[in-house]
Amino acid sequence: MTQALLCFALLLARTGFRGSPMHAVIDAVRQACRVVAWAALAFGGSAQAQAVDLNPALLDLAPNRWTRLHTPAVEEWSRQAHAGMAYDSKRGTLLIFGSNTHGLDWDNTVHEFDPVTARWVTHYPEAPQASYRADDKERAIAGGQRRLPWAMHTFAGVAYDPQRDGLIVAARPEHNPIGKKTPAAKIHPSWFYSQTRREWQMLPDSDQAAPKFFGAAAAYDERRRVAVAYRWGIWELLSQGGTTNSPETAWVKVSRENHHQMHHNMVYDSRRGNFAVFGDYRNTNDVWIYMPGARPGEEGHWEKRSPDGDACPRAQHFPVAFDREQGVFLLVPGNTEFELLPNGRERARRPKSNSTFVYDPDANRYLRLPGADMPALGMNFMMAYDPRHKVFLLVSGGPSEAPTVWALKLDLTGLKR
């Protein structure tokens, strides 16, 4: 009921009543709805109660196909294929951090997209190359008074931590060529970006060296309230005192088991409390499920699944997100073609298009959405599920293009499953 009132008030306020006597009444209704929403949240209401302002364009989408939501009129920055994205559940926004580097791009800022206003905000200017250096502890930093991480590949190693209210970045700048010119920078930490303070903090903030997270994937475990990273094993970000909210934290390796090289995407399943891993450098359509231990710091176990259903292409580095309302994953893999070499090995060709699939963990089946093919996305880890609007949001675009945001409302009713 609360959500319906909120949507009704918003839609009225954005239509023909603007400037009329009725407008003052509507503003009062909207303010009352805000009070009701926050009261519901304070007394145990759902996360949807936060959704005070919604975008009407996202509430009435044609189902099961991608709709272009926004492309900036003026190109201010370009999506970096090696960058990662996370969904800020407190603000309902998308957060992007990462760079292609290789001496071609030096983007080490945070870009934020608000689905309600359909606008991008860049949090601060990127650091000039001349500011890349080592601090007094031989740690790689950039920027002036604002201490920033180096521009780096992040892949799927970006996750939003609602307890700390910010980005966890489990990555390192191994492909940034400036490292060869800065031998004093011997330590490459992982990082945390505070959304409230708009400041970066090194992780771990103890004296422990950070794991070598190049090519890692990261996600946040909502049930156990712990950030998790996957690279040559499973790591959890724990406090020195054994809790997840202590001022001093460290990455703890809780499982040495490993099944992927790099370019994989790990997504948290909030309904079942586990993690699903899709894609790999070797191209695959298998799904690996990691079921964590009962408590933070305890080892979990893995399960390999080869789904039935529609034929899903073997692929790597593609976007995946989880629909918490319907309990399924949406993935957009590239339609990879393979060439058989004389030595019997396969060589993957660059996909010319991407297709959209649903993965149902309970049935262990793939379902292809026939009307949801996309132009080739290239390397892309930029999709999230927006529970406020109940849509998937996907960011696309090449190195010389303005970023485009797409939206898809999934409706499984009537689809062959």
Layout of helices and strands, plus pairs?
Blueprint: H1 2-13, H2 21-42, H3 56-59, E1 67-70, E2 84-88, E3 93-97, E4 111-114, E5 119-122, E6 133-134, E7 140-141, E8 158-161, E9 166-169, E10 190-194, E11 199-203, E12 217-221, E13 226-230, E14 234-239, E15 249-255, E16 265-269, E17 274-278, E18 287-291, E19 301-305, E20 308-309, E21 320-323, E22 328-331, E23 337-340, E24 346-349, E25 353-354, E26 357-360, E27 365-368, E28 374-375, E29 383-386, E30 391-396, E31 404-408
Parallel strand pairs: 20-27
Antiparallel strand pairs: 1-31, 2-3, 3-4, 4-5, 6-7, 8-9, 9-10, 10-11, 12-13, 13-14, 14-15, 16-17, 17-18, 18-19, 21-22, 22-26, 23-24, 25-28, 26-27, 29-30, 30-31
Helix pairs in contact: 1-2
Written description of the protein model:
The structure is a single chain. With 417 residues, the protein is mainly beta. Helix content is 9%, strand content 32%. It has three helices and 31 strands. A hairpin with a 4-residue loop joins β2 (84-88) and β3. The longest helix is centred in the first third of the chain and has 22 residues, at 21-42. The protein starts with a helix and ends in a 9-residue tail after the last strand. Residues 1-51 have low confidence and may be disordered.
Quickly count the helices: 3
End-to-end separation: 31 Å
**How are the strands of the largest sheet arranged?**
20-27-26-22-21
Rg, rounded, reads 22 Å
Q: Can you summarize the main beta sheet?
A: 5 strands, mixed
Content of β-strand: 25-35%
Mean pLDDT: 87
| Sheet/helix structural class | mainly beta
Secondary structure tally: strands? 31
Quaternary structure type: single chain
Helix content: under 10%
Taking pLDDT < 50 over at least 5 consecutive residues as the criterion, the unreliable ranges are 1-51
What gross morphology would you assign? globular
